[in-house]
């Protein structure tokens, strides 16, 4: 870890991402409360989940095109500037349609930023500079640090939201104005990220080289453009997107049912829910520390183990409805999610190169966000449909509808883990050093 943190460019990227992640979590909480304030209905909060669905479906192809043709550093800088402006505009008009529009647009901008960032990580750490150390190990640790800084900011973002909201209230900012300061601080974190990325070296691809390659390809009657459909023809991409979709099922079900599960099944209040969220973040960090020791691990096998572990934890959480087990389950779930997601994104980065890698990373983030939204909506709807009934699981006794849905979600995730091959994908031929899968 110290080796990576000594790399100036990677350290600056991490610092910028830590600050903007703090703003992201503040903004997410503020958005949910702001929507509730404007609508007076908890149903309207479901619209926040929909905002994570449509950008993934519509914006992923646009993001894929952007990161394969435009300079990655410029894409990230542009996305930060755009999101900062949107965060400033979002809270100033107390109309639900206005808020949903800008929240949707911010998600689309994030879909351009994320694959550009992830494609930059191998460049910043010099994945091929150390022939004595497997590149996958360096990538796994680097990806874990990027993700770890994001999830560590969950409890800090919640605390910052509460503090800024409290200060706004003491300043007599009432009505919709009580959330303006939170969104504007969120906008400021994007500005910090902008300057951190601006200080990085060039991350490619070179625009002149892209145009030259396109001209040469045109003479030969072929195209250099890589789209999502082309990436989906690669076995490694299909397998990883399947794994990401399964991970999203578990995350989405907990995202949708977590608050109600804590309140109605575990009989704990907001403090208990906050503790569970914090333990999930701690589990993520613990999982990262364990992955750090396995620099030459079989990445597909790690994905499978992480997904199976996630499914088992969700099943157990539904079966054993106690607060103590809930705390332990949150910790274990964070560890399992870390193993699956970090292994998946590292497998993509290590197995692909050039524009195919960029497109695959756009598909990775699109699939994760789309899956989260769909899983959250489906599990929430099923829990509502089952509400009020009594359900018995034989010798295990009666369970709450929310417990039943969690058990079902965990079972699907566990079953899905068997569709992930536990050996590296070596069946894909190399198609060039800058434009496809790596040679095995």
Automatic annotation (TrEMBL):
<keyword id="KW-1003">Cell membrane</keyword>
<feature type="transmembrane region" description="Helical">
    <location>
        <begin position="303"/>
        <end position="321"/>
    </location>
</feature>
<keyword id="KW-1133">Transmembrane helix</keyword>
<dbReference type="InterPro" id="IPR011701">
    <property type="entry name" value="MFS"/>
</dbReference>
<feature type="transmembrane region" description="Helical">
    <location>
        <begin position="148"/>
        <end position="167"/>
    </location>
</feature>
<feature type="transmembrane region" description="Helical">
    <location>
        <begin position="327"/>
        <end position="348"/>
    </location>
</feature>
<dbReference type="GO" id="GO:0005886">
    <property type="term" value="C:plasma membrane"/>
</dbReference>
<dbReference type="Pfam" id="PF07690">
    <property type="entry name" value="MFS_1"/>
</dbReference>
<feature type="transmembrane region" description="Helical">
    <location>
        <begin position="12"/>
        <end position="36"/>
    </location>
</feature>
<protein>
    <submittedName>
        <fullName>Major Facilitator Superfamily protein</fullName>
    </submittedName>
</protein>
<feature type="transmembrane region" description="Helical">
    <location>
        <begin position="240"/>
        <end position="262"/>
    </location>
</feature>
<feature type="transmembrane region" description="Helical">
    <location>
        <begin position="268"/>
        <end position="291"/>
    </location>
</feature>
<keyword id="KW-0472">Membrane</keyword>
<dbReference type="GO" id="GO:0022857">
    <property type="term" value="F:transmembrane transporter activity"/>
</dbReference>
<feature type="transmembrane region" description="Helical">
    <location>
        <begin position="360"/>
        <end position="382"/>
    </location>
</feature>
<keyword id="KW-0812">Transmembrane</keyword>
<feature type="transmembrane region" description="Helical">
    <location>
        <begin position="42"/>
        <end position="63"/>
    </location>
</feature>
<feature type="transmembrane region" description="Helical">
    <location>
        <begin position="402"/>
        <end position="420"/>
    </location>
</feature>
<dbReference type="InterPro" id="IPR036259">
    <property type="entry name" value="MFS_trans_sf"/>
</dbReference>
């Amino acid at each position: 870890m110290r080796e990576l943190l000594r790399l100036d460019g990677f350290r600056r990227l991490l610092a910028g991402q830590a600050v903007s992640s703090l703003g992201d979590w503040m903004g997410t909480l503020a958005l949910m409360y702001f929507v509730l304030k404007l609508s007076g209905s908890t149903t309207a909060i479901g619209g926040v989940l929909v905002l994570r669905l449509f950008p993934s479906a519509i914006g992923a192809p646009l993001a894929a095109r952007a990161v394969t043709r435009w300079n990655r550093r410029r894409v990230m800088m542009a996305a930060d500037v755009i999101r900062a402006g949107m965060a400033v505009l979002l809270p100033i008009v107390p109309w639900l349609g206005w808020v949903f529009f800008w929240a949707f647009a911010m998600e689309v901008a994030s879909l351009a930023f994320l694959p550009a960032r992830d494609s930059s990580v191998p460049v910043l750490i010099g994945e091929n500079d150390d022939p004595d150390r497997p590149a996958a190990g360096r990538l796994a640790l680097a990806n874990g640090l990027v993700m770890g800084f994001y999830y560590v900011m969950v409890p800090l973002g919640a605390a910052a939201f509460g503090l800024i909201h409290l200060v706004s209230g003491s300043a007599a900012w009432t009505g919709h104005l009580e959330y303006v300061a939170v969104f504007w601080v969120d906008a400021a974190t994007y500005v910090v990220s902008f300057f951190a990325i601006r200080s990085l070296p060039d991350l490619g691809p070179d625009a002149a080289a892209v145009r030259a390659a396109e001209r040469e390809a045109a003479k030969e009657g072929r195209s250099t453009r890589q789209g999502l459909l082309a990436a989906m023809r690669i076995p490694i991409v299909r397998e990883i997107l399947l794994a990401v979709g399964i991970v999203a099922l578990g995350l989405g079900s907990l995202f949708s049912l977590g608050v109600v599960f804590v309140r109605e099944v575990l009989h704990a209040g907001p403090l208990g829910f906050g503790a569970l969220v914090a333990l999930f973040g701690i589990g993520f960090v613990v999982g990262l520390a364990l992955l750090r020791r396995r620099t030459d691990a079989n990445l597909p096998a790690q994905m499978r183990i992480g997904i199976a572990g996630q499914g088992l934890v969700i099943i157990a959480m539904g079966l054993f409805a106690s607060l103590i087990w809930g705390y332990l389950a949150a910790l274990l779930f964070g560890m399992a999610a870390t193993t699956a997601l970090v292994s998946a994104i590292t497998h993509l980065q290590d197995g692909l190169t050039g524009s195919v890698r960029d497109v695959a990373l756009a598909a990775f983030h699109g699939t994760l966000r789309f899956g989260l939204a769909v899983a959250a909506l489906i599990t929430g709807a099923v829990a509502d449909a089952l509400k009020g009934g009594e359900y018995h699981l034989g010798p295990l006794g009666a369970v709450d509808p929310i417990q039943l849905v969690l058990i079902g979600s965990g079972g699907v995730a566990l079953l899905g883990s068997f569709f992930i091959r536990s050996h590296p994908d070596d069946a894909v031929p190399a198609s060039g050093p800058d434009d496809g899968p790596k040679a095995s």
